Amino acid sequence: LEMAATNQKGKAIVDRPVPRGKSEVSLSAFCFLFSEMVQYYQTRVNTTQELEKKLAGAGYGVGVRMLELVCFREKGSKRETRIVGMLSYIKDHIWKAMFGKAADALERSTEREDEYMIHEKEPLVNTYVSVPKDFGHLNCASFVAGAVHGILDSADFPARVTAHTVQFTNETRTTILVKFSQEVMERERRLG
Question: Model pTM greater than 0.90?
């Protein structure tokens, strides 16, 4: 009976990492599905803020599942307990699993110790979406902010996560602003 649960190399099935499978989705398929989701929510809201909230809610569920998936695929990964470690894990590993590349930058706020920012020059979710005039300042990266929120909540780092369009010297960037709850900051001080 025990022989049936092992493969040729003698490892039990549960000891093997989850197979990667086909990890890429075609850009056109992703853009089509995302634009359909935006259009679906657009018909059910009245304001830009409501639409961004709906997109963030959809992203939240994706974030919860992405954390589980990436952790299962990386058998040797350890659970992050520090803020910078967790945000770096999101920026490098989870962002790469979701968008095919790491995020552009991770930065701590100079004014507040509980705020961190993940910068992305051209988020994929904003690239192929045309915004109607009545939703003028819509930032579809709210979906990504929702995903980051889901990841952080699942990892026990409660935070408020929002997406903002920021004008730098000669370019526009999207910033995912993460403001951690007081309990996370207290835990960080105890660990540090």
Answer: no
